Amino acid sequence: MTHPNAASRPTQAVVLAGGQGSRLRPYTDDRPKPMVEIPGTGTPIIGHQLAWLAEEGVTDVVISCGHLADVLQTWLKSSDLPVNVTTAVETEPLGRGGGLKFAAAHLPHPDRPWYATNGDIWTRFSLRDMADFHTERDAVATLALARPRIPWGAVKTDGFGHITDFIEAPPSTFEINAGVYVFSPEFAGLLPERGDHERTTFPHLARERRLAGFPIPQGAYWRAIDTAKDLTEAAKELAALGRA
User: What 8-state DSSP symbol labels residue 189?
Assistant: First the structure.
């Protein structure tokens, strides 16, 4: 039996791959951040993302490029891809919101919903469930929410100032924007031509109660690959999960 929301699940997506990746140097000296490989996997981050999107029913992907776009385009041409890929190359930096708007203009079905993901996110969870959540809340935009592990050990104290426990790398008490989204068709029209949508479009939608937050299910893998340490940690975690 077909799920009642199946028709409203996106089949198109944007991957934001235009950033400089300066905190990942020297890995990003000769390639854009999404082309960096997790040690031991043999797959760049973007390869993993395209496979994940295909598994979740996506057929068409627009990759927003900027920094070292030709390296990414060469890899795409030489790879056996599970989806149809178009690249949208920014000739000048448009900011996150502007880049998203520019890429959205290249989607094959502007009148249908779409997914988007930051190009440095390594994750696996059900985008179909997230799309259903988005539809049920009549949202214009839905953000995936993660609880990242704090990189330091934490302490617990009692009311008298005595330390009662040490907790190694606890999950954050706050949920953060996980860099994965579901957008309704009208969202692209609300984006700035240049600048950051997280300071303009998102707060505006939040005030209107049209912005939803989908908690990534407990136990699902999520990590933003931002620094060399993240690469090492991800390699360890993926090996432990048996996914590497």
Answer: G
